[in-house]
Each structure stands twice: as structure tokens, then as C-alpha cells.
Design a protein that fits this description.
Strand content: 15-25%
Shape: globular
Radius of gyration: 23 Å
Largest sheet: 8 strands, mixed
Structural class: alpha+beta
CATH topology of the largest domain: FAD/NAD(P)-binding domain
Helix content: 25-40%
Number of strands: 22
Distance between the termini: 47 Å
Number of domains: 2
Number of helices: 17
Length: about 550
């Protein structure tokens, strides 16, 4: 059997040896491990928390997807994941007959996605998808494990040492290929792989929305998400958070300006930046008149389930009011990063406390004390997601970097001289997948307000997965060759899955062909063969003619 094995030293286990090491068990990491394992390679997958799934699970973010996701624009395995989530609810939950019969079942009927669901549902489905490879021994999964160092030999990664966080026990893993699927590109500094952080300058990229000078410390906000329901007549008010007074009075300093206090039902429209009001009234929501923020990321809709089985809808809170931008998690000490995560948690708890006690009601009162923090939904004692929702990572300096002129609607129109209605994204001959989302950048640590502009359905070029120097490290999620600007449309769930799946397939292909990713891209014969392999595994490499988003 082809499986990871222990190399011994003095009769005791020493290094774990495998074909492919995937560091980071998030959305892209799971897809990478599945692709490499189904290609016959032995795989070790490590994950920093005790849940695999990344955005889908431990970050508690229902899928952000393009409007054609039910028809095309995703890989076969991502569709299998989505089908699995729907089947999970049909098998295990008391759905109404009408809900169960719907082919497009949306458990939460949220309007951010056609598939809003609980983190644990995604965890169950992903675990089932990995199970055959785990049971065969081809895949080894190491939870609560993070990378701490790397052993390099010239331009190749020889091994990565990981540590089991609860025990402090280290394990060195030797692999032919290493996929960095961590949320922040943690392997890049450990391996000396060249990378970029923050915003590139307009002189470097030519992007219309890039700043005039590089801003490496200007990163998108991250968010500590949480789930809540509403039980009228009950009091579930939490204790005032330690930083309640700060966040209650905090007014963002942004360019262009914010509209007032962050904890408010008035904020900036992400596209126009004009003043906008957010609809939120749990009293109406409990009577079935869902709208606004409550419905936006609702992950359980009581109307989908038999009467009495749910006491309330469940809403996932990943809103403008709990985006945190007062510091970064990259380029700072571990102590400073931990401090920013703790402050982001305080912001989210302060938002909940404000909603419970101080948010303005239509009847002139303040707050809804029946809002209940659902700790069970995210599996943590504090009720906040196991890991922050990360929108931006370190990014490799790649053989090819996707810039705004390749995918932005207005940038493409200006470049080609064609009307907006007629432009399409830059076609890439080395495409390894597709994606679609607006260029959607949340407010940043550099003081930028939203940058949210139209983009075109795009491809993922193989060149964006090939570092400029290191030969056997492949990015597996948001750390590919994109910019601060184009990260805004390459960072969402189905795109990250496609990136990871392409990375896992690439590692397996290079081992089988005794070729490097760089050589695969440079050789028309190898590239065509690899793309044929991807198509045979259900990966779409091009779009039909599509309109701008």
C-alpha cells in the first residue's frame, strides 16, 4: 500500500516521509489533499486547529459564491461537497417535506449564498470526503498541528517540522512536494520563499486602484465570526466585554470617511461608500419577516424544519460592524498578533452586547436581550469562531501575477478600448481553473475604506502557482500570485477550493512525470497533458461568455 511512513532513528520513529505534505487543512488544503490522494500519492495533511475546513468550518463563513454556481464555474469535487451538505441535512435533520424535496435546498435561506449552512455540516461532509483516503492509510491527518521550521536544500524544501500544539511534540516531515495551504502563507517565511504582503504600488502593477507607493503593512480587515439566535421574552445578555467602552465609542478613521460610530445600524455602502442603513429587527424576524442583516448570513431557517424542531432561526454574524483593522497578523511578533486577535474578539462580543442592550429599536427602545450567543454552533467556550476569518495572506512572488488589468471590468475596458458589456477577462493559455467574484476589499489596516469594483469571470493561471525560485513549494489558497487588489476576487470559497485542488493535482502530476511545476508550465506537451488530466477530473478551465459582475 502506498502510504506515509515513519523513517526510524536508533529504532525509534524519527521523520515522517510522504509524497505530498499539505500544511493547512482549510478549504484549499482539503481540496489539495483530496486531489493528491485520488491521484495515487501518499499525503500528510496538517491543520492548526481541531477542525478541518477553514472558511467553511473553523472560520464560520457560509460560502460566498458566484450566481452561476449551480450550473457551472466550479470543480466536480466542489460540487460533490455542496451536494454532500444538502444530503447531510436531508439525512440527519427533520426537514419539512417541501424543503427536503428542493434540489436547491438552502438550509438557512440566507441571501449571501445559495447554500448557507452550519460549520459542523461542512465539517461532517469534508470528513466523509477524506475518510476513504484516511482509512486506506494513503492520507495521514495531524490536527492541532502547526509548522515551526523548514529544512531547505538550495531551492528545494527538504522537510518541514511541525508541532502538536497541546503537547509541544515536534514531528519532521520529508516530502517531495509541499503545499502551503495555511491561512496566512506561514511556510513562505519559514522556507525563504519570496513573497509580498499588503498593497503593491501602482508603479509596480499599473493597477488603477493600487496606491502610488507600496504599503506592505496595509492589509484587509479580518473578522472573528459568531452565531446567534433570538428567543423573545428571554434574557441572554452577556457580561459587558472588557473593551466595551472603547468599541462603543469607536469611530473609524477611513479614507474616504466612514459614516460615524462602527457599532451602528448606519454604515458605508461598500460600492458607493454612501451612507446606508442596515435593516435589523429580530422581533420581525421571529415572525417570519426576515430581511436585512438577519437574513444576510442566516445558516438555519426555522421554516425549513418541522414545527418545534428549532426554537429560532440561527444567524451568522460576519458584518461590517465586526471587521477588525487596527492591526495585522502578518509581519508582527506572535505576541502582537495574539493581541490583535483578542481585540477582534472583543469587538465581536461588543457588537453582540450592543445589539442586546443599546441598538435602536423601531418602538423607541434599546436592544434585544433575547439574542443568544450560540457557542455550540462554532464549538468554542467563548462562542467565537475557532479561527479568524482571514481575507488576505502573504502571497508568493510568482512566475505570473494576476493584476487588475487582467480581471477588472473597467480596467479591461480601458485596456482593450471595448465597451464594458463586451469585455472579458484576460484568457490564460495555462489555465488550471476558474472563478468569479467582485474585486471586494474590506476596509484595511492602512485606513482605506472599501474597494469594491466590478470584475469579470476569470481563470487561474498555472504561472500564479509557481514561485519565482523555489521548485517544490506550491501555494494552495489565497497565497498564490495575485495582488492586494486581485486578492479581492481570488479569495472566496469555490476559488480557494479550485486553487487547492489544482495544487494537489500538480504535485501528483510532477511526481508521476518527474517534472517540476516550472517545467510543466514551460513545456507545451507537459502543460497540455496536465490540463487534460484536470479536465478528466472535473475541473473547468474556461468560462462560457459571461457578463461582468
Amino acid at each position: 500500500m502506498n502510504e506515509p511512513r515513519w523513517a526510524t532513528r536508533n529504532g525509534r520513529p524519527g521523520e515522517l516521509v510522504t509524497d505530498v505534505l499539505v500544511v493547512g487543512g482549510g478549504t484549499g488544503g482539503c481540496a489539495a489533499a483530496l486531489a493528491a490522494a485520488r491521484s495515487g500519492r501518499n499525503v500528510v495533511l496538517t491543520e492548526e486547529t481541531d477542525w478541518i475546513g477553514g472558511q467553511l468550518t473553523q472560520q464560520a463563513v457560509p460560502p460566498d459564491e458566484h450566481p452561476w454556481i449551480e450550473q457551472f464555474g466550479a470543480t466536480r469535487s466542489y460540487r460533490a461537497f455542496r451536494d454532500g451538505v444538502r444530503d447531510y441535512y436531508r439525512r440527519t435533520y427533520p426537514l419539512t417535506g417541501e424543503a427536503s424535496r428542493r434540489a436547491d435546498l438552502n438550509p438557512g435561506n440566507g441571501n449571501v449564498s445559495r447554500l448557507c449552512h452550519e460549520p459542523r455540516a461542512a465539517l461532517a461532509v469534508l470528513s466523509d470526503m477524506l475518510a476513504p483516503h484516511l482509512n486506506s492509510g494513503r492520507l495521514a491527518l495531524l490536527l492541532d498541528t502547526r509548522a515551526v521550521s523548514a529544512d531547505m536544500e538550495g531551492d528545494r524544501v527538504r522537510a518541514v517540522t511541525v508541532m502538536h500544539t497541546p503537547t509541544g511534540h515536534p514531528t519532521t516531515i520529508r516530502a517531495s512536494y509541499v503545499i502551503d495551504a495555511t491561512e496566512l502563507g506561514d511556510l513562505l517565511p519559514l522556507t525563504g520563499t519570496e513573497f509580498v504582503t499588503g498593497a503593491e504600488s501602482q508603479a509596480e502593477t499599473g493597477e488603477p486602484h493600487a496606491p502610488s507607493e507600496a504599503q506592505p503593512d496595509n492589509h484587509q480587515a479580518f473578522t472573528c465570526c459568531f452565531a446567534m439566535d433570538y428567543l423573545p421574552g428571554e434574557d441572554h445578555t452577556i457580561d459587558p466585554p472588557a473593551e466595551w467602552a472603547f468599541w462603543r465609542d469607536y469611530v473609524p478613521a477611513m479614507t474616504p470617511p466612514w459614516t460615524g460610530p462602527l457599532l451602528s445600524l448606519i454604515g458605508c455602502h461598500p460600492i458607493t461608500l454612501e451612507r446606508r442603513g442596515y435593516a435589523f429587527d429580530p422581533e420581525r424576524e421571529s415572525s417570519g419577516e426576515a430581511s436585512g442583516l438577519w437574513r444576510y448570513r442566516r445558516i438555519l431557517h426555522a421554516a425549513n424544519f418541522e414545527r418545534g424542531s428549532l426554537r429560532s432561526d440561527v444567524c451568522l454574524v460576519n458584518w461590517p460592524m465586526n471587521d477588525y483593522w487596527l492591526g495585522n497578523l502578518v509581519g508582527v511578533s506572535a505576541e502582537e498578533a495574539d493581541r490583535h486577535v483578542e481585540r477582534a474578539k472583543q469587538l465581536s462580543l461588543s457588537l453582540l452586547y450592543w445589539l442586546q442592550t443599546a441598538a435602536p429599536r423601531s418602538d423607541g427602545g434599546e436592544g434585544w436581550r433575547g439574542l443568544r450567543l450560540r457557542r455550540d454552533i462554532v464549538g468554542t467556550p467563548d462562542g467565537l469562531a475557532k479561527y479568524p476569518y482571514m481575507r488576505e495572506s502573504r502571497r508568493i512572488r510568482a512566475e505570473f501575477t494576476v493584476v487588475e488589468q487582467h480581471v477588472g471590468t473597467d480596467a479591461r475596458a480601458a485596456l482593450t478600448g471595448r465597451p464594458r458589456e463586451e469585455v472579458s477577462a484576460e484568457p490564460f493559455a495555462d489555465s488550471v481553473g476558474v472563478g468569479s467574484y467582485r474585486i471586494d476589499l474590506h476596509p484595511s489596516s492602512g485606513g482605506d475604506n472599501y474597494i469594491d469594483v466590478s470584475s469579470l469571470p476569470f481563470q487561474i493561471p498555472l504561472g500564479s502557482l509557481v514561485p519565482v525560485r523555489v521548485e517544490n513549494l506550491i501555494p494552495g489558497c489565497k497565497n498564490l500570485g495575485v495582488t492586494h487588489i486581485t486578492n479581492g476576487c481570488y479569495r472566496l470559497h469555490p476559488v480557494e477550493w479550485n486553487i487547492g485542488e489544482a495544487a494537489g493535482a500538480l504535485a501528483a502530476y510532477c511526481i508521476d512525470r518527474n517534472a517540476s511545476p516550472r517545467a510543466t508550465r514551460a513545456s507545451q506537451e507537459l502543460l497540455s497533458s496536465f490540463q487534460s488530466l484536470l479536465r478528466s477530473q472535473g475541473m473547468e478551465l474556461a468560462w462560457p461568455r459571461m457578463a461582468p459582475r
